[in-house]
Each structure stands twice: as structure tokens, then as C-alpha cells.
Amino acid sequence: MAEQFFGRENGRDPLPFNGQGPASGPDLKTWVWAVHILHAATFVTGFTGVAAVIIAYIKRADAAGTIYESHLTYAIRSFWIGIGLSLVALVLCVLLVGFLLFALVGVWWLIRVIRPIIALSENRAINDPTGFF
């Protein structure tokens, strides 16, 4: 009974850990691609980022311990930092400084959209998912 609890049945070890975690594979990678595509589509639609962040929050627990966890954390942070920077730029539009800040936020957003797509296409994790860039 104790052997079954600890993963050893009939004296054999369970399958070796492959470093990808229990929820790795094409299904999780497809969800991460969907998140990145929805973020990129925000440039055109203005609202698909909301769907992206909802999916990222839902799938982040499944991605724990995989390269995809960093992608989902990065997407969530991109959404919230982008909202915050956009609100600051909107308020500063009264002083005409906000228009320049909106342009800078757009460049920042492009970096935040392109960087994870390149990393995911190369099957790499995001180096610093909690960083500003």
C-alpha cells in the first residue's frame, strides 16, 4: 500500500521525470500560442487581450514547472502593465505628453508581443518573465 502511494508498484520506479511537468505537450503549447496570438490581435481589435489574460490565468497552474509557465506569467504581466501604462498615458494626454507616452507604450507592447513568440517558436522559456521588457 505504501509503495503504491509513493509511486512504486511491484518494486519498479514510475516513469522518469522529463523536466516538462505533468501538463506539458502539444495541448498546453497550443494554449500558449493562443494567448500570444490573442495578445498580438489586440493591436487590431483592442479587446482580445482580455481573453488572452483569462486563458493565461486559467492555464498557468497546468503549466507549472514547464517552459510554458514563464510564457503565461509574461503574458499576464504584459496585460496588466500595459493597462497601467495606457491609463497613465491617457491621463497625461491633457498635458499633451500622453500622446508621446502612448507611442512609447506601443513600442513596449510590440516588444512584449514579439519576444515571447520568438521564444515559443524556439521552444524556450522567457528568460525574465517578471521583467519590464
From TrEMBL:
Keywords associated with the record: Membrane, Transmembrane, Transmembrane helix
Name used for this protein in its record: Transmembrane protein
Transmembrane found in the keyword field: yes
Annotated transmembrane regions: 31-58, 79-111
